[in-house]
Amino acid sequence: MIKYCSFIILLLFVFNAEAQYLKQEERLKRAEIWADSIIANLSEEEKLGQLFMPRAFSHNDSKHVNTIKKLIKENKIGGLCFFQGSPTYQATLINQYQKLSDIPLMIAIDAEWGLGMRFKEDALSFPMQLELGSIQNEQLIFEMGKTIARHCKRVGVNINFAPVVDVNNNPSNPVINKRSFGEDKYNVASKSRAYILGLEEGGVLSCAKHFPGHGDTDVDSHYDLPVITHDIARIRDIELMPFRALKDEVGSMMVAHVHMPAIDARPNRPTTLSHNAVTGILKEEFDYQGLVMTDAMDMKGVAKHFSKGMAEAEALLAGNDLLLLSEDIPKAISTILEYVKEKKISWNQINKSVQKILVFKYLLNLTETPIINNTDNIEADINDSDAIILKEKLIEEALTLVKNDQNLVPVRDELYKTFASISIGATKKTDFQNRLSSFADFKHFQCPKSLSNNVIDSRIRDLSKYDIVFVSTHDMSSYEKNDFGVTKEEFTFIRKLSERTKVILTVFGSPYSLKYFEKIPNVLLAHSEDAINQDKAAQALFGVFDIKGKLPVGAGSTLKAGMGIYSSGLNRLGYSSPERVGMSSDSLKYIDDIVKEMMSRKAAPGCQILCAKDGMIIYDKCFGYHTYKKKRK
Fold first, then answer.
1. Phi-psi category of 289—alpha, beta or left, where left has phi over 0 and alpha has psi -120 to 50?
2. What pairing do the DSSP bridges indicate for beta strands 606-613 and 616-624?
3. Is the pTM of this model over 0.85?
4. 3-class DSSP state of 387
5. If exposure means fewest CB atoms within 10 Å of the residue's CB, which of 166, 278, 548, 581 is most exposed?
6. Percent composition of the chain: helix, strand, coil (DSSP 3-state, to 5)
7. Residues 188, 416: Cα–Cα separation, whole Å
8. pLDDT tens-digit series, residues 316-352
9. Is 77:329 a contact under the CB 8 Å cutoff?
C-alpha cells in the first residue's frame, strides 16, 4: 500500500459522509483498489495521458475549445488547468469536458489570492500573500483558505495551485515578490500551513510552490532560467525549510524552474528536471507522498534549454508525477515512450505516478463524472458577503504601524483644530480621503508624483499651516527596478513637509518601499490601493480598531521584518457593511424609498439618517434640503 501523509486525513472527512465511518487505511485501500482497477484497463498511451494537465481558457474561441476536446478524446489527458475567462462559462465548459473524459478530469487553477487572480472583473480578490504576512491572527488565513476552496468548487475546480511557500528574501525578485508571505522562513511556513489546512478542509487540494525555493532570484522563470548559487547548507536552512515543515500537510508540491548548482551542477538544468532535487530531496529525503508536479513546461526557464518532448521526458525521469502545461502533448508522449524503450524510464515508475494520480482522484470524489448542476448565480456565489467581510478583517489585521515617533496615532481629533490631506499620485479625491472626512473637517489635495521645486515649495506653504497633514502614496509599484513607485520629487516633498508640520504618512504599496521613508516620524503601511485598504487605513488612524500588523520583510537599515507598533483603538464608531453586523443591505435600501416618498408628499424637505449597530455605522445618508427653498442641502 502506498504510504500517504496526514493531508489525506483531512480529505477523508471532507468529501463523503462515509469517510466519517471509515478508518484511514480502509479508505486508502479502497482508493488503491479503484486506481489499480482503472490502470489494468489502460493502454500505455492512456496511462501517459493521465500525467498531463494542459492550459485551458474560458474566453477563447471555438478553435481552442476543440483543441481541448481533442486532447481529452485522443490523448486521454488527466486534467486541465484553467486561466483567464468567465467563471460561468468556465463551469459550462468543465461540464462539457468532463462528459467527454472516460476518467474524470482533475481541474486546477492558480487562485493564490482567490478566483479574482484569474477572473479579475468577475470574482473577489483577497489580499496577496505579502500583505497577509503582516497578520498575527492566522485563523483568518485558515478561513480564507476555506472560503477560496468553496469558491473553487463552485466553478468546478478541485486543485488550487496555492500557497506560494517561497521565502522572498530578495527585494529585486520580479516574479515571487508580493506572492510570498515574506522573508522570515518561520512566518512563511506558519501562514502557509494555515492556508493549506483551510483549502484541504474546504475540499480542495492545496499545492506548495515553488520547490525547492524561488524566493532569492532576480530573474523571472517565465522568461529565463534563474540561477541560485547558495551552498547546500544555506538552501537547506532557508529555501527548503518551509517545504520540509509542510510535507505532511500539503496535498501537492510544484517544482520550480530554477537552477541550483549545489543540488544539480549540470549546466542549465532546472530543478524541475533534476532527479537530485525531485526524487533525491523531495521524495526520498523528505519522504513526501503527495502529488509532485512541474511548473508550467512552456515557461522559458525550461523551454529555452530543452526541446518539446524532451523536457517532459526529463521531468518524468526526475520523478515528477504531473506534467503541467506542455506545449505539445503528443510529442511529449512519443518522447517518453522512446525513453521507456531506451530503458531510461521504467513502466514501474510510470505506473506509480498514474496510481498516485488516480488515488487522489478517488479522494477528490472523481470516480464518476462530476457535473456542476447549477450554473446560475455563480458570480454572486463567488462574491458573497461572508467573503467580503472576511476580506475586510484580513485587511484590518494586516495594517502595520511602522513608526509613531510623535505619538500621533490613534489621532484624537479634539487635540487639533485644522486637518488636511494630500494624496500623491492621485488625480481625484481618493477613497482614503473620503473616509478621513468621516472623522474631521478636512481640506483635501491631490498631486502628481513628479513635482517641480516651485510646486513642492508652494504645496508645503499651503499645507504647513494645518495642524496635522495626512499624506498618502498612490500609484505604487511592486518592483525595485521602478523604485517601488516612489519618485525623488515625492520623497523630497514628504521629507520637507514633515519638517514643517505634523505628518502621518500612509503607504498604499509595497513594504519594500518603506526604505525611502525611514526618517518620516509617523508611517502606516496599508499594502495596497484597494478601496477597502484605503477605507480601513483611515479608520485605523482615527482609532476605530487596534493596529496589530508586523512587517513581513525588512526595508532599509532600520526597519526589520517582524517590526510593528501595536496601537490600541479609541472605541469609536467605525464604518462597515450591514452584513458585518448581521443585517441586510437589501433591507436597508427600503429606507431610500421611504424617504423619497416622504419628500414627494411634502412631509419634510429632507433628512439625515444614520444607523449604527455593534460599533459600526452601516447606513449614513443625507436627503433633500433644510427647507423647501432648497438653498442648503
1. alpha
2. antiparallel
3. yes
4. helix
5. 581
6. 40, 15, 40
7. 41
8. 999 999 999 999 999 999 999 999 999 999 999 999 9
9. yes
